[in-house]
TrEMBL record:
All residue ranges annotated as the Beta-lactamase-related domain in the record: 11-318
E.C. code: 3.-.-.-
A GO MF term: hydrolase activity
Residue ranges that the Swiss-Prot or TrEMBL entry lists as coiled coil: none
PANTHER family assigned: D-ALANYL-D-ALANINE-CARBOXYPEPTIDASE/ENDOPEPTIDASE AMPH, PENICILLIN-BINDING PROTEIN 4
Organism superkingdom: Bacteria
Subcellular location: Membrane
Keyword vocabulary terms for this entry: Hydrolase, Membrane
Pfam families: Beta-lactamase
Protein name per Swiss-Prot or TrEMBL: Serine hydrolase domain-containing protein
InterPro entries: AmpC-like (IPR050491), Beta-lactam-related (IPR001466), Beta-lactam/transpept-like (IPR012338)
Signal sequence, renumbered to the chain: none
Length: 346
């Protein structure tokens, strides 16, 4: 019988994978391996402790920071964005609420519409990336995009909506967004390596993001500091700690967590993700984090109270074949993570 470790090593070697894979089942870490280089220029090897950018895998942190403010009574799911935005972003419909933004049902025009991206390696940011270092700095990029549909009448994945959430959270709390996430989410969840690092001054334990097989990094493709829609750096161990914290009722109460994990309906998507809650994807009985950008690909699936498996890569496409192979081993015969999936980790 082929072991899980052997299967992952075969797929990682065959695809030239650069990143980290971790699998935890019933409280036991059954696999944690690293492949490739964190820094190609200096030949620094990837390790399980390497911090890797997870792109939109950071959206749940934004959602949790917002929901902490909801629990504290500073915001409500029914708070209208206009109440906080004032005269800013006038094309955002006056009826858009915090809940609409969290569930990708706001209908606002997106500054970075992934459905229109044919080339993930293109320079797609509408303003110089070095200027995008704080929630307020996104205002010029978010402005000028007409409403796509009436709030609450459809679903459209919207990066801009989470940037608006960061702006709202920062304004009502009086705390810089990245610091707010650290105080309200990262520290209460026990995450020791997760942070919004500057891409132009990464520390030695962080992986550079690579566009392809060569030496070019993604430093000119993404905001210099991650914001509401993504860009945090983390480790495989912290991703597992994140799931463990949520199972244990941190950083939000179990009731709030369950509401965030509740799917807002079926999504007509071509991939296997079949629902979305408030900041979290749903796939069968699993809750999923996913990120995809120039020099970053990430997927983590979690069966609450039972198992989690994660793939973090510092290349644009690297995570997907490894994640597909991992899913095939850890899901049931239907290819979906059901509560009774065998989780074959031999």
């Amino acid at each position: 019988m082929t072991t899980l470790a052997a299967t992952m090593d075969r797929v990682a070697t065959a695809t030239g994978f650069s990143g980290v894979v971790r699998v935890d089942v019933a409280g036991e870490t059954v696999l944690e391996r690293a492949w490739g280089l964190a820094d190609r220029a200096y030949g620094v090897s990837m390790t399980p402790a390497t911090r890797i950018g997870v792109a939109s895998g950071a959206k749940p942190l934004t959602a949790l920071a917002v929901m902490r403010l909801v629990e504290d009574g500073v915001l409500s799911l029914g708070t209208r964005a206009r109440e906080v935005l004032g005269a800013d972003l006038p094309l955002v419909d006056d009826a858009v609420t915090v809940e609409h933004l969290l569930s990708h049902r706001s209908g606002i025009g997106d500054y970075l519409d992934e459905d229109d991206q044919d080339d993930m390696l293109a320079y797609v940011m509408p303003v110089p990336v070095h200027r995008l270092d704080a929630a307020e700095s996104y205002l010029p990029a978010l402005d000028g995009h007409p409403q796509v549909f009436a709030p609450g009448t459809g679903f459209a994945y919207c990066n801009g909506g989470f940037c608006v959430l960061a702006l709202i959270a920062e304004r009502v709390s009086g705390v810089r967004f990245q610091e707010l996430v650290r105080q309200q989410v990262i520290e209460p969840s026990g995450l020791t390596a997760t942070a919004y690092l500057r891409s132009d001054q990464l520390p030695g334990d962080a992986a550079r993001g690579y566009l392809d097989d060569g030496p070019r990094t993604n430093v000119l493709h993404l905001p210099v500091v991650g914001g509401g829609d993504g860009g945090v750096y983390t480790t495989a161990a912290d991703v597992h700690a994140f799931w463990t914290a949520l199972d244990g009722g941190r950083p939000v109460t179990p009731g709030t967590r369950d509401e965030m994990w509740r799917s807002r309906g079926f999504l007509d998507r071509t991939d296997r993700l079949d629902g979305y809650g408030l900041g979290f994807w749903r796939w069968g009985d699993a809750v999923v984090l996913e990120g995809y950008d120039a020099g970053a690909s990430f997927r983590s699936a979690h069966l609450p109270g039972r198992a989690s498996w994660s793939v973090l890569s510092n290349t644009t496409e690297g995570a997907w074949p490894v994640a597909a192979a991992l899913d095939a081993v850890l899901t049931d015969g239907s290819g979906r993570p059901g509560r009774d999936a065998p989780l074959d980790v031999r």
